[in-house]
């Protein structure tokens, strides 16, 4: 399996975040990727992981998902923030543009002239997305890792002379950070700045392919849902803990709208969900929803914060359970792109990601 990885993704390293009222060390740390990379390197003789550097495909694929003003904000936020004397540790919102502010729509039209402090509250919806000096470089690289992996998968399928029922289909892993599934087209949230999975999906849809996004991160992928809520392609499916972050989304009643109605499937689960229960739900959704959709590609929002001891997520999934999840994903029998999302238990993050990929490949 090819693993796309770049050390530039390690540069984004905010010092802290505020979670449940506590100021804590930033959990979405570079160590996460370093540990996963080391573990896969150690496994490489066993499972044939091949490490590939991404290429640079510019802003165009990113702008197919994100608004131009939002991208300009991410590129310039830190410099503007420091220029007016704010904390050099990074940009964090001081006030949010809440829906109940009656003048909210007119404020949006003044974005070019408002203070860098106000902009932080305009383009961010929580306190987990501190923009430090190197954030944009890593955010951009994270997207390039996913774009490169997507194009590689597309190339393998195009060059393959075999028919659609070839078994097994290849899988590729985009080992990237910051993650993406909480970001929508003009809002960062939940450690996410650019929606990597959405960018990949747009590339594949642009080639007239049908895509299923299976989001197995512990948290609901509210950004991905939001971006594709009105579309029948992709089919978006999320298994997530509830009630939990992002708190306001992820209900079963959110099914998509217009042409997209029926193509957004949320499966909220309790924190007590163990390996057997999770696998049962996953297998059901594979047979009932994923296979009948008849997609050309599968994109997995791969979070391992479903692990039983994860500090901010956590069903009761064990390391062995991740291997079974990988086997289930393999049974979908589609060309598959795994895109790294969450997972914060550093002692096991390498093993758990590795086990999903081993389950998929063996
Ligand atoms: Zn998560």
Automatic annotation (TrEMBL):
The keyword rRNA-binding appears for this protein: no
Gene3D superfamilies: Histone deacetylase domain (3.40.800.20)
Pfam family, one: Hist_deacetyl
Source species, domain of life: Eukaryota
Key words, A-Z: Hydrolase, Metal-binding, Zinc
Keyword Hydrolase tagged: yes
GO terms classed as biological process: epigenetic regulation of gene expression
GO molecular-function term, one example from the UniProt record: hydrolase activity
Cofactor list: Zn(2+)
Residues annotated as domain Histone deacetylase: 27-351
Stated family: Belongs to the histone deacetylase family.
Protein name: Arginase/deacetylase
Highest classification ranks of the organism: Eukaryota, Fungi, Fungi incertae sedis, Mucoromycota, Glomeromycotina
